Amino acid sequence: MDFKVKLQILLGDILGGINSAIVALPQALAFGVATGFGAGAGLWGAIILCFVAGILGTKVPMISGPTGPMTIVIASIAAALGFDMQAVITIMLMAALIQILFSITNISDIVKYVPYPVISGFMNGVGIIIILIQLNPLIGHSTISSTFDSLKHFVINLNNINQPAMWLGLLTLLIVFGIPKKINKYLPSQIIALIFCTIISIKLGLDIPKISEISVNFPNIRLPIFDFHKITVYLPYAATLAVVLSAESMLTGLVADSLTKTKHEPKKLLFSQGVGNIICAMSGSLCGTAATMRTVAALNTGATTKIATIINPIVLCLLLFKFSGFVAEIPLAVLAGILIKIGYDIIDIKLIKVIKFAPKDDLYVLILVFLLTVFYNLIFAVGAGITLAALLYAKRVADKAHIVQKSIYDKDIMKLEKILETDYKHKIRVVHISGQFFFGSATQLISKFEDVLGTKYLILNYESDDLLDISAIFALEDIIVRLKSQHIKTILVIKNEEVLNQLKKHSILSQIGDNCVFYDEIDAIDYAKNSLKNKVKKKQK
């Protein structure tokens, strides 16, 4: 690689770092204010996490820092715990440790399989929450974290609007929504609104709520709570935060892969994010994730190496130290306008456009998660959404599982059967269990075996290679016991060695005998025929 190419790469990284820092500045300040930690915590979180995660992370430069979904989770946790910031810091630290645990296990693969309706419902809910809780600061009043309370106070506060704050907030909205995409690509509308509207506020000497104070000192070490009982109470909050942090980071990783035509390492990404978030929590700064918007801004400007993740925090530090006085003058109504735009961008517009074509099951999950996120508890919403999605998936798989009956006849058996009885009580039947045999399908299939009672030999042919879960094993045992009580001999056809070993370990085979287990269906049929002939001959004697 010659000097000219190296210089070009370095220039791309520098420009990418600067551009992503310009995108990060207003967002970090706004997210810090929205959580209650303050603008400084948001900015220091962006600086620390981007630097640490950038150095330790993947080869593809991913710009990290506080993001919208994470902000709402932390704000909700803070509100639930009475704004006990030491408790929230403890939860952020626990979430970071869980992220590291994800990175050294295969759990990181499971996070990727959270159903899309759950993610979409959650993201849509988060976007609406961000918009709703910024309505009050948009008209010059304090932020209220509860969705219901925010709406209630907004209606009341409409009678007492801070006019200068409202007009500045509306001007911010006009800029962030009105700047054409061509300009926004090179100079983000959020930074234009932040600078322009703050200058207007300063020049006119407006008496409106502002950031007022931002610390330029390095953050002090903050110790977590070391109370075992409290830690067990905080664990569900930390687990939810860890999943949100990890899922959003991996989503950014997928976006970066598509832009760079490369493949990132999910475990390395989660490890670097976890270490960075530990330092953020211990310093009292906001934790965060690999941020999609900032990463895309860096990559589109030419960033290709980790140097961009070093340039970004350097630029943010320069802005913090050199322009802290200007930052302190930023009106909260301006930050509210910027956050409303961020909330709108988070909403899954793509899904809304095609929602009428979506399967009903997906809609049920999406609506449940959305409503619980907005009006109840977003931590509970994610768990409820995953649970409902899993149950609906189980039902779909169970519905596909069915039994197929085949009656086996030959001339000898028909003659022998006629000697015994004229009906078909002793015919041989083969039942194919097709589809996945698990806790959902097992329940349905048990009820269908009433239709095959009356025969003397029932051949159960399990055709799938899928292992049985414990419910299916117990269901199979129940089927065998019920058939045995009706004096029906069960014969199994199992082609998968692992499934066969499962049945041996659970003593299922001992209930029917090893001689009644076959690999091939024809062998099972021949065994049933010969057994039936022998029984008939014995009765004839």
Question: Topology of this protein?
Answer:
Blueprint: H1 3-35, H2 39-56, E1 64-65, H3 68-80, H4 85-103, H5 107-111, H6 116-133, H7 135-138, H8 147-157, H9 163-178, H10 181-186, H11 189-204, H12 228-260, H13 266-282, E2 289-290, H14 292-300, H15 307-322, H16 324-328, H17 332-346, H18 349-353, H19 360-375, H20 378-400, E3 402-408, H21 411-420, E4 428-434, H22 439-448, E5 457-462, H23 470-485, E6 489-494, H24 497-505, H25 509-512, E7 517-518, H26 521-540
Helix pairs in contact: 1-2, 1-3, 1-14, 1-15, 1-17, 2-13, 2-15, 3-12, 4-12, 4-13, 6-17, 6-19, 6-20, 9-11, 9-17, 12-13, 12-14, 19-20, 20-22, 21-26, 22-23
β-sheet strand percentage: 5-15%
- Rounded mean pLDDT is 80
- Which structural class do the helices and strands define? mainly alpha
- Tell me the radius of gyration: 32 Å
Main beta sheet strand tally, sense and closure = 5 strands, mixed
What best-fitting shape do the alpha-carbon axes yield?
elongated
Distance between the termini: 95 Å
Helix content: 55-70%
Number of domains: 2
Low-confidence stretches: 416-424
Task: Tell me the number of strands.
Answer: 7
DSSP helix count? 26
Main sheet strand line-up: 3-4-5-6-7
Describe the structure.
This protein is mainly alpha-helical and 541 residues long. The protein has two domains: 391 residues, no CATH class; 140 residues, STAS domain (Transcription Regulator spoIIAA, 2-Layer Sandwich), CATH 3.30.750. 68% of the residues lie in helices and 6% in strands. It contains 26 helices and seven strands. A five-stranded mixed sheet has the order 3-4-5-6-7, sandwiched between helices. Strands 1-2 form a two-stranded antiparallel sheet. α4 packs antiparallel against α13 and α21 packs parallel to α26. The longest helix is centred in the N-terminal third of the chain and has 33 residues. The protein starts with a helix and ends with a helix.
